[in-house]
Design brief:
Elements (H helix, E strand, L loop, with lengths): L2 H20 L6 H14 L3 H5 L5 H17 L6 H4 L2 E11 L4 E11 L5 E13 L2 E11 L4
Antiparallel strand pairs: 1-2, 2-3, 3-4
């Protein structure tokens, strides 16, 4: 093999490996749900979560973006200062009759001041043309009656 061919082959393998590992989430119900939760809760990035969404989930995210836009435009707002510690765990999965899977996550949110509370995130993932998307989501208080 010539030196140029070896370099070209190495470059191709490097780029191919980068593309495989750098494309985000696994194309599965769990993969898209975990990436959605990461963007939504940890990054505080509803716009980023839109990329993973379809249907009612898009409507809900757009409404949240509209409601929080004035706060996000404040000149001295530093989201990193307000970002709580978030932990989430998949606790149940239900396959629906169609191409939809419902995933149930326990979410723990701990504010900087030490206040901790529990939520339940229920996400519906739907396969559209070979790609899993979040089609609906709801967040509930876990301590509700």
């Amino acid at each position: 093999m010539t030196r140029n061919f070896k370099q070209l082959r190495f470059s191709f393998l490097f780029i191919f490996g980068f593309v495989l590992t750098g494309c985000g989430h696994e194309n599965s119900p769990k993969g898209v749900a975990e990436e959605f939760l990461f963007r939504y809760f940890i990054e505080l990035n509803q716009r980023g979560a839109l990329d993973l969404s379809t249907g009612l989930a898009v409507d809900k995210l757009n409404k949240e973006i509209e409601l929080t836009q004035s706060v996000r435009m404040e000149p001295n707002l530093e989201l990193s200062k307000h970002r709580p510690f978030i932990d989430y765990e998949l606790v149940n999965t239900q396959q629906r009759k169609d191409e939809t899977v419902t995933l149930f996550f326990d979410v723990t949110i701990e504010q900087k001041g030490g206040y901790k509370y529990q939520r339940e995130a229920v996400l519906s993932a739907t396969e559209l043309e070979g790609t899993w998307k979040i089609s609906n989501f709801d967040i509930f208080d876990r301590d509700r009656p």
